[in-house]
Amino acid sequence: MASSSYTHLSISEAQAERLAFQHYGIRCQARMLPGEVDFNFRLDTPNGASYTLKLSRPGADPKLLEMQAAVLKRLEKAALPLQLPLPVADRNGQLATSVQDEHGHQRYIRLLHWVPGKVFAKASPHSPALLESLGRACGQLSRALEGFYHPAAERPFKWDPSGLPWVKEYEHLFKGQQ
Questions:
Q1: Which residues form the domain of 49?
Q2: How many domains would you assign to the chain?
Q3: In Å, how far are 61, 71, 72, 156 from 153, measured between CA atoms?
Q4: Which residues on neighbouring strands pair with residue 107, listed in sequence order?
Q5: In whole angstroms, what is the distance from residue 167 CA to residue 112 CA?
Q6: Neighbour tally for 43: CB within 10 Å
Q7: 169 within some domain
Q8: Do the Cβ atoms of 140 and 81 come closer than 8 Å?
Q9: Tens of pLDDT along 126-169?
Q10: For the chain, which has fewer Cβ within 10 Å, the N-terminal or C-terminal residue?
Q11: Each residue of 96-122: pLDDT tens digit?
């Protein structure tokens, strides 16, 4: 997705470091990470703490960001035996901070505690023990979120199996059982 619009919306690692200091009082070294929706940076501090700084795209729904923070807070209260990327409040106690970028777009930044480890796709091998551990964690997360409701969750997600009809228009891009 390295289009000119992507480049236009992205920020530099130096800009991420400035945002972290300005809004969270954190001096750090930033490293850009991949992301589907947000622009993400790993922040490493001199004292060894690490965080994820997330910068939204223009037009992000603040209610959706509020819902994401509410999910993480709910999981935190459940005291699960899992490391979670818990949100960090800014200097004003906010979990999502509105900022204006150099092009005049309103964006939101959020800071989460860094969770060390490998992403599942890069873990090898996918042993039965690893798969069982993943299943157990998914079950714990599902149980902890049972009964959770937030109005911002009422929206279509492309990866939701119940909303798959949108895929039909792209079938021609695949051959056979690809």
A1: 4-155
A2: 1
A3: 11, 10, 14, 9
A4: 99
A5: 33
A6: 25
A7: no
A8: yes
A9: 999 999 999 999 999 999 999 999 999 888 777 777 777 777 88
A10: C
A11: 999 998 888 899 999 999 999 988 888
